[in-house]
Design goal:
The chain is of the alpha/beta class and 574 residues long. The chain is 39% helix and 19% strand. The strands form 2 sheets. Strands 1, 2, 3, 4, 5, 6, 7, 8, 9, 10 and 13 form an 11-stranded mixed sheet that branches. Strands 11-12 form a two-stranded parallel sheet. It is globular and about 75 Å long. One of its GO terms (biological process) is proteolysis.
């Protein structure tokens, strides 16, 4: 699996340049625009000292900078934080509390689900109230409560800390279509002890006043980019990227990722003669305060180049964290699962357990159609989390310092960081150097089959509406087997093979991960597999008044899906 060039490169990995960046960022808060820009120049300076050229792109991003919040009731003021994009309401919003109980996510895979009590979330109970809800201020919950008439939201975080976050479902800087989904109510988060007092108050019919202060608008933001040219196909490239803005100093999220990319840039630049394809490395701003605004801007500004030439997108977030002994719940699109399994086994001598990428983590390229792998990196075991009595968070290797002022140097682990850097480097080079791109679309067809069967079962008597999808999927499966057999036999030349593998991504990734058209950005809300068919799982909830509309939606979704599968099969037959 790993060729000599890859083995030589990973042997050169060390933390001599990476670790000082982690240490420096541990003293540099990076969410206010002026601090974020200073840290971009720090990255550029370090790259320059390593002899690596860097381009400093300027982007105009729409950001929400949170400063302070409070919740007051019965003469007591509770400390709080305002999620980015909540309404700035320094004068205060007062109202009666209504509690919507919720369950905590059992794993990262369900972290962004609503996880709340359906009955308590009924519109008639919410309208005109300030909703108090357990868990995090996730965008799907805030959007639902806002649409049902809530005048404010308070999220009760699971522990003694208050976690920063963002409550907007708008992905990146809003366009005119996304603007109506921007939150228009104040939102605050409190810790669990204070939240329990507020829950008791809600049960007693009490009221509270929320105050929030944020700054929202367009800000100049810097995107450092390193381009390491390939020697054979320099126009084709792998995109490695991660965010350099953070909440407070954000050591595990994401100073360690910034350091990993610095080291990978160093090693690749000095071994660029061994690269077949190019590797482009980018550090994103606007992740924390703009809902992935930096990566969304890049996807927009360089869309046609990405469409023509990017063969894979690799996200680097939260590597090198303490106790992160396993590679579980790691994002990977199914076509790249075999690649990641092999790389992690050979480099780290560990098993790999990937999962469907969430609609999160700077995956701003799904609508273009880029094969992608990694998001969060290694993590602690379930047993370790239980031992530490940790709840599920969205980064930091599972450490609950995630998105808090406690994400400090003790969250990072130098040895684990070196191991994770080697894994990233090997995965990137395995794509960049492969004669035939190492993406197996037969695995995606297997995923599609399992998804379709789930929808067929849920659709019951209406399952026949999915018959066109089943027929086209069967045809695609046959075509894929013939295609890969041709590659193995040498009857499909590498130029055609790579062009087809890349073009399949442009068809099948949007089909599996998006609802909107290409070159747009779907909301930051959970997306099920083959989303155009997902209404099939809801047919049983519709009565006589709406079932016809639901069937119509399913028929249209089946047409979209079947047509895309047919397009993919025809591509293989050319």
């Amino acid at each position: 699996m790993l060729d000599t060039a890859i083995k030589n490169a990973i042997a050169q990995v060390n933390a001599d340049a990476a670790w000082p960046l982690v240490e420096a960022f541990s003293t540099m808060p990076r969410w206010k625009p002026e601090d974020v820009e200073a840290s971009a120049h720090d990255i550029a300076r370090r790259l320059g000292e390593l002899g690596v050229p860097v381009e400093m792109l300027e982007a105009s991003l729409y950001l929400s900078i949170p400063y302070e919040a409070s919740v007051a009731a019965n003469g007591k003021t509770y400390a709080s934080k305002p999620p980015a994009y909540s309404l700035s309401c320094p004068e205060g919003m007062s109202g009666m509390l209504h509690h919507v109980p919720g369950a905590l996510a059992a794993s990262v895979g369900s972290f962004y689900e609503k996880n709340r009590d359906e009955a308590a979330a009924a519109e008639e109970r919410i309208r005109g109230k300030i909703v108090l809800t357990d868990g995090f201020a996730s965008p799907n919950k805030v959007l639902e409560f806002q649409e049902k008439g809530a005048i404010g939201v308070i999220a009760v975080n699971p522990g003694v800390d208050r976690h920063w976050g963002i409550c907007s479902s708008v992905w990146g800087s809003p366009d005119l279509n996304g603007l109506p989904r921007k939150p228009v109510i104040p939102v605050a988060v409190v810790n669990n002890p204070d939240g329990q007092e507020l829950i008791a108050l809600a049960k007693a019919g009490g009221s509270v006043t929320i105050k929030t202060r944020l700054e929202e608008g367009w800000f100049k933001s810097i995107v450092p980019v390193v381009n390491v040219p390939g020697a054979v196909e320099p126009e084709k490239f792998v995109l490695l990227a991660g965010h350099y803005d953070s909440w407070d100093v954000g050591v595990g999220d994401n100073a360690t990722g910034d350091a990993a990319m610095l080291e990978i840039a160093r090693v690749l630049w000095h071994n660029r003669g061994d690269l077949r394809r190019s590797v482009r490395i980018a550090w994103w701003p606007g992740h924390s305060t703009g809902r992935y605004a930096g990566s969304a801007w890049y996807a927009d500004a360089f869309a046609l180049d990405l469409d023509d030439n990017c063969v894979a997108q690799v996200n680097c977030d939260s590597p090198g964290c303490r106790w992160a002994d396993v590679y579980e719940n790691v994002a990977v699109m199914s076509e790249a699962n075999g690649l990641c399994t092999d790389v992690i086994r050979e480099v780290a001598d560990l098993p790999f357990h990937g999962e469907r990428p969430l609609r999160a983590g700077d995956y701003s390229f799904n609508n273009i159609g880029l094969s992608s792998f990694f998001m969060l990196s290694s993590t602690m075991t379930v047993e370790k989390r239980k031992e530490m009595n940790y709840y599920t968070v969205g980064g930091c290797g599972g450490n609950i310092a995630w998105h808090t002022e406690n994400d400090l140097m003790d969250i990072a682990d130098r040895d684990i960081l070196i191991r994770d850097i080697k894994v990233y480097l090997a995965g990137i080079m395995a794509v960049a150097n492969a004669t035939i791109l190492p993406f197996d679309w037969r695995a995606t067809a297997v995923e599609f089959k399992a998804t379709l069967e789930k929808y067929q079962k849920a659709a019951g008597d209406d399952a026949a509406l999915l018959d066109p999808v089943a027929a086209e999927l069967a045809g695609l499966g046959v075509a894929l087997e013939a295609f890969y057999a041709g590659i193995a036999a040498g009857t499909v030349d590498e130029t055609r093979a790579n062009a087809v593998i890349q073009q399949l991504a442009r068809i099948l990734v949007p089909l599996n991960y998006t609802r909107g058209p290409r070159f747009t950005h779907d909301p930051a809300l959970p997306v099920p597999g083959l989303p155009a068919l997902s209404v099939a799982s809801e047919l049983g909830t519709h009565g006589p008044e709406t079932i016809g509309f639901a069937r119509t939606q399913l028929m249209r979704g089946a047409n979209r899906t079947a047509a895309a599968l047919r397009q993919a099969a025809r591509l293989l037959a050319i």
